[in-house]
Amino acid sequence: MYYIYLVILLALTEYLIFGYLVSRARTRTKLAAPAVTGDAEFERYFRVQQNTIEQLIVVIPAIWIGGLTMNPLWPAGLGAVYVVARGFYAYGYIQSPPQRHYGFLIGLIATIALVVAAFLGVLKPLVM
How many CB atoms lie within 10 A of CB 12? Predict the structure, then answer.
C-alpha cells in the first residue's frame, strides 16, 4: 500500500503546486480577489487548478479502493500515469488551451481505468 500512499501524496502535492501557481498568476496579472475572470492568463491557471480538483474527487478514492482490493501496484501505476498526464495537461493548458488535449486524454483514460479496476477489485470477491 505504500505505493498507493506515495501516488496519492504526489497527486495532492501537484494540486498544491497548481494552487501556488494560481496565486502567483493572480499577483502577476493584478486580478483582485474574488474575481476569477477578466484576465486570460489567470483564467488558464485557475482552470487547471479547478479541473484538477474535479478529477481528484474521482481519482483518490479509486486508487484507494483499488489498492485495498487488488494488487496495489496496478492502481499505483495508473495513479502515477494520471499525475504525469496532469502535469502535461497543466503545461499545455497554460501555454495554449488547445495544447491540453493529450495530457487531459491520457489522464482521463487513467482515471477511467482506476474506476474500472476499483470496481473489479470490489466485485471479484462478491462474484466468486
Answer: 13
Nearest to 115 by CA among 78, 72, 71: 78
Residues 49 and 47: their CA atoms lie apart, in Å, by 5
pLDDT in tens, the chain (128 residues): 999 999 999 999 999 999 999 999 999 999 999 999 999 999 999 999 999 999 999 999 999 999 999 999 999 999 999 999 999 999 999 999 888 999 999 999 999 999 999 999 999 999 87
Task: Tell me the domain boundaries of the chain.
Answer: 1-16+55-122
Yes or no: say if 82 and 107 are a contact pair by the CB < 8 Å rule: yes
Tell me if 79 sits within 8 A of 30, measured CB to CB: no
* 49 in Cβ contact with 19 (< 8 Å): yes
